[in-house]
Structure formats: structure tokens, C-alpha cells
Amino acid sequence: MDVLEFTPEPADFAWTFGGVPPVRRVKPGTALRLWTEDAFAGSLRSTSDLASASLNMPFVNPQTGPFHVEGAEPGDTLVLHFVELTPARSWGASATIPFFGGLTSTDRTATLQDPLPERTWIYEVDSARRTVGFQAQGSDLEVALPLEPMLGTVGVAPAGGEVRSALVPDMFGGNMDTPEMRAGTTCYLRVNVEGALFSVGDGHYRQGEGESCGTAVEGAMNVVLIVDLLKTPGPVWPRLESDEYLSVIGSSRPLEDAWRAGQVDMVHWLGELYGLDKLDAYQLLSQVSEVPLANVVDANYSVVTKLPKRLLPQVTAYDGIHQQLRQVSLG
């Protein structure tokens, strides 16, 4: 297997999906060893660093990429299997940001209340114990939380020549912020432009479902992934497969439309996998699905529809490529 290592310099970051030339060309079947910067572009390093003074909008959520996948054509299925996600720093940061978050006044949800105050938290990483440390600032509480690395942002160039902010989740993927995007997971994305032009970034050392305040424990990440390509119709919405679940991520506003997007695509996926008609798939989905919120704070909200494999007859999705890549990654 070919291996490509790439650590971007600050000038190499992409800040959008679409509109950016590729940093490298890769062949399907290549393993990539990458480094990604945190969502704050490394600007919040202590509790005295506040977002309003430190962040340089719109230069947040820097992406590593895009990568041109040779042979990828519009309509194909891009396959990204995440082998390893490991913190690249001994600390991560989280923050409340003015007019941003699920429980404060925002530009989309306008009220006469002032936004919540700014605050920055620094989480120390204990690699041996695999924890990140929360330290309250208004009291003496300290909590060691499990380290659960994930990528908040994975996506391809959008269709129609669009250029979208790296803060936005949509059909092309983007800033979906789901904890399901972890090591051992395979992501399926529809190719919209020649070469797919995929990027990854926004490492989270851990995150609660919904990402209530709009920021996780943000941190730079070492990423190992395998890229592959299927000449089969790509999914409408991003799909994920792990050893335990099949998932679809829908993104929209209002929140129920994000839920509907994932539910509808999962109905179609069930039909493809088991030969079910629409109503049977709808009924089965209604009784077995799990639906965690991914985020309720971005320009679009993201909702995950998950099917537990243990409840369904064994079936092979996408020609079994998840199982194949999982075996390769495990050696």
C-alpha cells in the first residue's frame, strides 16, 4: 500500500470546501498520514485568550487538503476509512464565543438579551490514562473525562461549483461534528467534481452529543486514513459504517429537517440492502433507529440516524469495503 505523509504549513490550509486547488494527488488504495490544526487555528492556548480578540474570522476550522483522488468522477462513491486519530498536542481548548452556541442569543435566534460571557477552558491530555481534564473556573471542580478522538469536519467539494465555508455541514459533508467520525469508521461521500477534492480537519479530543456551546475539546490531530473509490452511485447524504452501526448524517435548518434528511436516506439505504419497499423500510427504521444530535449550533444543524447491526440480518454494504479496509488497518 502506498503511504503519503502530509503536514500542512499555515499557508497550505483550506478554509472552504470547493474553490481550492488540491495540495496533493492520491490514488485509490493509498494510506494518508496527516496532521490537522484545531478549529481555532491554534490561537487559544490559555484561559486568558478570548475568542473575540484571538480568532480571525473567517479563518477558523482550517482544513488539511483538499486531495485530488485519481479517477474520481461526479456520481462516484468516495470511501475514507479512518485508521488512527491521536492527539497531536498535550492540551485541547474549548470556549464560549459571542453570538455562537445552542443556548445563547445568536444572529439566527435574535433576542434582546446580551450574549453569554466569553470564557476559555484548557483541557490537559493524559495520554497514559487516555483522559482530558476539565477544570471549572467558577469553582474547584475537576473531572477527568475519557479521551474520545474524532474529526468534526470531513467533506468533498460541493456540486454546482459552489464554495462553502468550512463551518457549514451539508450534503457534501463538512462541519458535521458527529462523534461517530472516529477511528474504525468508514465514511462514504458522493463525488461532485473530478477528483472529489476531499479535506479533513477540526479534531475533537472529545465532544458531547449536540456540541451545546458550539465548541468541543478542540485539538490538533494526527490522522491516518485510507482513501478508496467505488464506481457506484454515491449517497445523497454522508453515510458512515462501523463494526456496530450503519449511519446517515443529515444537515439542515430547522432541526427537524436535518432529522428528516437522514431518516429518508436511511429508508433508501435499507431498501437497497434488504430489498424492502419504502413502507416496510420506514416501519423497520421506526423501531430500530437511534438518533443522536451531532450539532445544533452551526449554520446548519446535523442529526445522525444510526442502525444497530446487531438487530438486523447480516448484510454487506458497498461490496464489503468497510470490512476489507478494517482488516487492512488491523494488519
From TrEMBL:
The record ties this protein, via InterPro entries, to: FmdA_AmdA
- Domain of life, per UniProt, equals Bacteria
Q: What Pfam families is this protein classified in?
A: FmdA_AmdA
Q: What is this protein called?
A: Acetamidase/formamidase family protein
